[in-house]
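Known limitations

Files may contain more than one protein. Parsers should not assume a single record per file. Below, a two-record file is shown to illustrate correct handling: read the sequence, read the token line, then continue until end of file.
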Amino acid sequence: VLDSQYGLYAWPSAVVLAQYVWAHRQSMPGRRVLEIGAGVSLPGVVAARCGAQVTLSDSEELPRCLQSCRRSCLTNRLPHVPVIGLTWGRVSAELLSLASVDIILGSDVFFDPKDFEDILTTIYFLLEKNPHAQFWTTYQVRSADWSIEALLCKWNLRSIHVPLHSFGADKENLASSSLPGRHTIEMMIISLAQSEGT
């Protein structure tokens, strides 16, 4: 899969995150949701269909991915869902002008270790601006050597592991992949770490 094509494929992590959104569909109406690295936008589309106020985003440097977001919205009869260019680790007018959010979605954004800090920098900025928000993220375990624990600590973020069986996503037909190799999907919720004394 070519680098520029990552966002044009519905990865198994997106299916699992969409399942989590669906499992929490009763809480979606009126929630303000931002999907980062949206690509084909499956989790964001599910959130919008469940009544959330969704904004989809992908890198401003990947116009084909942004077009994919727009195409997903039109295909799912969601023509008014905004699609914006947000590049991880970059402060932009789009990032600064974002309305408040309750939930940030990101499926398989932790794909390339060189992007991990840029992603968490952007997440930290959004959570500082929206202290009660959460970042719901799923990812494929591709290497035991890749970890974001040190970066979570550096950016004063905490994570809670969410077992897939707790929302019916542990079935092989849900998160299976035609890609070679074994694909373990994990889910976590990232939020601001509480300061000492609070």
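...continuing to the second record:
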Amino acid sequence: FCIKDTLSRLFARCGCVQSVDVCEKPGPAEKKEKLASKFFNRKTVTGFQVAYVVFRKPAGVQAAKALSQEGILLISTESHPVKTGISKWIDNYAASVVDQEELKAEVDAYMQDYDKKIAEEEAKAAKEEGIPDEEGWVKVTRKGRKPGLPRTEAANLRVLEREKQKRARKELLNFYAWQHRETKREHIAQLRKKFEEDKQRIALMRAQRKFRPY
């Protein structure tokens, strides 16, 4: 509930606030990378956090230390209400819904920059290929067996090849499992047949012992 804007508003009574930095734990501030995307690599911090309020003048620090004597600072007031409960949940859910058009535009822009970067690297490599450097070494680049295929098509072919190999391994395992079941079934049938033959042999031997004509 207590975000940067709220902290800046609360401490504004002490003096002009220059900046408010919210961190996960106390300590020297780490250099934060500028997020290029609003959809990816977003880190959500949960639990308690630490805030550093920087005033433009030293007098603001002294005034902030004396705030505890003036009473409790209210985050939510009539003029600046803070949403809580179900209202906050609704806002959080609405903020979590991704705009598909905006997401598509960002992904397309990223892919265009990526393709441009790859094209520049390939053009630079092709330009430098075969040209010796200052020490006389010649840089040799390894090209694929099908250099004429686009990068995406070559990647698709690799995926299809992996899927084909995976399917072949699965079929082979299924064949081995079927063969094992058939061998086990035949073994059980032979045991049953032998058991029946032994049972008939034993019955015949018993009948021969009981039948004594002399």
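Parsers that stop after the first record will miss the second one. For reference, the second record is described as follows. The mean pLDDT is 77.
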